[in-house]
């Protein structure tokens, strides 16, 4: 017990305090430990400790000039007696509005709260000065990740601000942040963060090896980093995912992921991302279990519809009309009367037109884009039907496919579906249901072979992990997820996996 108390208390020797600070904030490269000179032979007589991502640099200089250094000069001639020095320090701290701490636990807590800590030779107390806090633009709800229930804080384009918001959520020295500088002209700062004791060591080593390769390149956005560290460049499936929500980023850290943040970019890259991760959102854990499970099932249904509906229609209408009920088949034949194109050409025309409308709606200014996309879809759809270029059933199929793709919560996975939809339509037009089945087999084989940072892409499904299925097709009650053995390891400091969001 005595040794434990001694480890927590400050030493009178500055060199021991400096060694303790360096060990406590090891690999937290956003923490600055600055020595202040002034000794008989120019040696350091004090230390300034603060988190640069929480304290503005101008504010830290102001505190040092107006408060910290005058306090050192004021106490320079004090008696070396312990009781007199402590009394003088308390009186001077009160005059300079400084808070005093005598244990490293309190110092660490205040560093993560944005305090500037002053530790001097011969002191058994540290003086803490409150900083002005973060300077940032107004934090708004992310446009790409709206929330009905839950936090609405989104990231901005300043790296220290984003790191500060992460520090505010996870105020512990187990959150390690390391920097990489990319490029010789831009000199872009790239930070990657992970939770020590939770992230897999092999995955972290592979990530460090890959991100080191980006140093010679000029990096403009976080997506440049994704291209450098992904396993398969030509796979349509995303191996990492993006977020602008700090609660999602914090949950990913607890899940054993690695975060990549780039200066001048609001996007946070979450590494790695598994297939099942693209059907869950942070909001699933802020609503009731029954509703979250229903919404997750709807997303899975939307994935199946967006991927297969046009190709299934082409296959059945061209090769397998016997699979369609007679009444519906007669309605389809009646609607297609006078259409000069086969179903495959009709599907390709309408799908291409829909993709063009969607891209135009994204690129146009926001007030105009939504109007153009909606009006354009109505006008083009009605004109195609009247001109006998497309049948009404095909317009319905394309519209349902587009709506289903919008229901997928992550844009990266929606892009993968858009890419795979056209090869499946072509396969269905050549071999019908057999071509569709072969397309599914090739996609499944690719997913089974795909890895991301050494992790199987279909983890939880293949290899099958029954425990993880509680958070895949359904969302089990939070008390069940938080009661899991691996979650208890997480809180104890051991490795944790995807048990708590």
Automatic annotation (TrEMBL):
One term under GO cellular component: membrane
Keyword set includes Cytoplasm: no
Protein name: Spore germination protein
GO biological process: spore germination
Bilayer-crossing regions: 298-319, 393-411, 423-447
Sorted UniProt keywords: Membrane, Transmembrane, Transmembrane helix
Keyword Cell division: no
Superkingdom: Bacteria
Family: Belongs to the GerABKA family.
Database matches in Pfam families: GerA
Classification via InterPro entries: Spore_Ger, UPF0353/GerABKA_families
